[in-house]
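Researcher: I'm preparing a figure for a lab meeting and need a structural model of a single chain. I don't have an experimental structure, so a prediction will have to do for now. The sequence is pasted below. Please return the structure as C-alpha cells so I can convert it later.
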Amino acid sequence: MQRQRVKMLTMISILRRLLAHHKRGNCWRSFAGFSLVELIVVMAIIGILAGIGTPLILTWLPDIRLKSAARDVFSLMQNARMQAIKDNRDWAIVFDTVNNRLYLCSNQGADGTWTGAGDPTGTGDNTIVQRMDLTTYNSGIGFGHGAATVDATGGAWPNGDVSYVPTAVTFNSRGTGNAGFVYLDHQGNTTAYAVGTVSSGSIRIRRWMGAGPTPWQ
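Model: Understood. Here is the structure written out cell by cell.
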C-alpha cells in the first residue's frame, strides 16, 4: 500500500511539472492551448492515477464505513441519554448480537425488562423508537473486535462482543446508567472500535491502535 501511495505522489508531481512547464511556454505549446502531445501525456497520467487510486480506495472503504458506524452508535447512545433526561424515565438500547442490530427503546413493556422474551431480537414487547442495522453499512460491519487482543478495559472479551449485562445499555432520568462497551469490526478484521459508557453516563468511543501502553485511543 505504501508503494502505491509513493507512485501516486510521483505521478501527481510529474503532472504538476508538466502544467508549470506549459504555463512558461515551450516547443509543445500552441496558440490554442495544450498541444496534442501534452493532452496525450496528461490523459496517460490520469489513467495511471486511476489505476493506482482505485485499489487504495477499496482498501480504505471498510475502515471509513466502520468509523461511520461507530460514530452512529455513539450518537444513538447520546440520543438515548438525552431522551431519558427529557422524559424523566428510563430509556435503553438493546443489542441484537445475532442480527447485528441495535434497538433504541423508550418502554420495557408488560414484562418490565429490556431483555425479556424476544426483546434481544426486536420481537418482544419493548417500545422500539429506532432500529439500527449494522449490516447496511456493508463491508461486513457488525459486532466483533477485529485484530484487538484485549478489550477497552484491559480484560477478556465479552460474549457477543457486548460487555453490557444484560445486553442493553440503560439511562435513567439523571443521565446515568450501567457501564460497558460494544465492539465493532469489518470483514478485514484489521481494526475495531469500542463504543460505550461509564456509570456516570459519559459516552466514549475508542479505536484499536495496536499493541502498546494505550492500545485503545
